[in-house]
Amino acid sequence: MMQRLSTFIIQMLDLLSGGAFAAALLINAANVAGRYLFHSPIFWAEEVTTLLIIWSVCLMSYRLTLRGENLSAEILKPLLSRSAQRWVAFGLAATGTALCGYFAYNAYLVVELVARFSQVTNVAEIPKQYVNGSILAAFVLACLGGMARSLSLLVSDKRLNTSDPVEVQDALAGSK
């Protein structure tokens, strides 16, 4: 059940992220055509394109955290047993989840503040709570992905190959 829900969430976030990125590309192409063919650029295009690309990246934080695709140094990994590797991976996921929760809370405070003051962007006049909301969304999604990953590492009975990182094992398990 949890696996199906997680897969559904990933597919929806992929769709939203891809849509935001595609919209950014279309707006940019229209702006280039307007600027160089008709000498009339779309005045808000650069700002909106930047925001859409930021949102498309932030929406992927759930997938990256769930799959453990974040950057990590694995200097001690060859020295650890499989069981110790799993506990280290669990500790990192749980710590990352706690940090993401903390950052999500602070991002919420910022979003609430800019909403209270009715701040908008300079050119497109987009309410800044939608702009800063991308950071809030990224940390909330990363927190949820971290929780799911922590639970998965805690209850999983899959054995880890000592030569492969946890992420490779997860990918191999998903492809079979």
Automatic annotation (TrEMBL):
One MF term in the entry's GO annotations: transmembrane transporter activity
Gene Ontology cellular component annotations, sorted alphabetically: plasma membrane
Pfam family membership, one: DctQ
Primary location recorded for the protein, binned into one broad class: membrane
Keywords on record: Cell inner membrane, Cell membrane, Membrane, Transmembrane, Transmembrane helix, Transport
One GO biological process term: C4-dicarboxylate transport
Cell location: Cell inner membrane
Limits of the Tripartite ATP-independent periplasmic transporters DctQ component domain: 26-153
Membrane topology: Multi-pass membrane protein
Keyword field contains Cell inner membrane: yes
TM annotation in the entry: 48-66, 87-110, 130-151
Role description: Part of the tripartite ATP-independent periplasmic (TRAP) transport system.
Subunit structure: The complex comprises the extracytoplasmic solute receptor protein and the two transmembrane proteins.
Family: Belongs to the TRAP transporter small permease family.
Protein's recorded name: TRAP transporter small permease protein
